[in-house]
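Researcher: Quick sanity check before group meeting.
Model: Go ahead. Protein one:
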Amino acid sequence: MTRFALLLAAGVSAIAISSAAHAADLIIDEPAAGVVDVSGSWDGPYVGVFGGYAASHYSEAGGYENDLNGWLLGAAVGANFTVSDGIVAGVVADIAWSNQSLTDGGTVDIDWVGSLRGRLGFDGGAFMPYLTGGLAVAGVTIENSPLSDSNIHVGWTVGAGVEFAATENLSVDLLYRYSDYGSQTYDIGGPFDAAVTTHQITVGLNWSF
């Protein structure tokens, strides 16, 4: 499943690179007669919803490790602002419900994930390829009946995406991210350290205002 996520990530990166190259051509060339220049339309605050798929890896300090995967459904809020010709910076916060679960003797559940990230994009008019990175958090529950323990993991995330304007105020956001949520100590009949990393692909709708 990690291989599948990496293949999807490569696709998103290729789209972003191709979009950036095409956007550069659009800026360099004179616009054709009758074409409206929509550069700069990414500025301002926005809210959004998104869904996607996550492939995660769980590991314990004692050597045990396994994979888990599942769906994501969440919401985001952010803002963009133009910092120079063709360059758009921004900040976004998101949180998502996750149904990722692993059962192997005990149970590991990734209940939710979230992030606070910066974005740096290229204004191509009707589309914006971008890079993103920042803080990542995840809520994890480990159970070995009848005992269970929950923790919030805090780590980092990086990714790449491309956003397409569908209307003046609505855009479609395609994003790949890798997140390392770090390690936390759990106590289920004895303490142990566990870590989680995730590849995720999401598609979202953002409304600007």
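Researcher: Fine. The other one?
Model: Protein two, sequence then structure:
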Amino acid sequence: MEQAGDFLEESRALHALLETRPDGDFDKVTQFKGWTVNDVLRHLHFWNWMAELQLVDEARLDTEFAAVATEGMRTREFRAVDGAAGAALLRQWWQQVQKTADVFAGADAKARLKWVGPSMSARSSVTARLMETWAHGQEVYDVLGVERQDADRIRNIAVLGVNTYGWTYMVRKEEAPGPMPFVKLTAPSGAVWTFGDDDGTNKIEGSAAEFCQVVTQTRNIQDTGLKVSGPVAEDWMSKAQCFAGGRNDPPAPGTRYKSAVC
């Protein structure tokens, strides 16, 4: 699957950012819930492994779901890497990335895989790993003061963002205020991507990377240059959520940004 390769390349970019960093940088506290860079990598590593288990060991997957429920997610993530940190943790994470990407590359994209709640397709599962890597990677780039150079593989995240328009309201037990607004995005390559129907009223236009930041809740809409017009578009962008789980609200304006410290 193309998405397996995209997940691998996004992970490779994060690895390149961190591979020459001293261990002290992994203890830096990010703007996401007070997580350190180590916390981010443990989280990504664990759920990348869980995604691999979807395809290779469903019984172990069930065991780990039960352990998460009993011990708590953060505790289980810590124990899964034996408390590794810094360069040692980075090696474990990167080895697992490659295993997960490899097993998904050879999978049937439409195969139904067990997960928390409803099953999902293999394509959706590895796309979620790409999205999580990109979204959690944002707080790492931010805390290290590095501007990320995105690639057109983020189209997967943009598609996920528009496909979860209804989910944004469902998870809040609200009715969507109307059809999904027209979305017109400029890709990192300069290509133009469009989604939905242009009714001349509700639309979102601008950077694809910034749209992805909003739907993954790594930036508040007010901290982007996206042009949002129409009441439905404004409402959606004020609460967009492309990821599973319970309701999450976007970060407050001005609270997620690239640090000036390199």
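Researcher: One line on it for the slide.
Model: DSSP finds ten helices and six strands in the chain.
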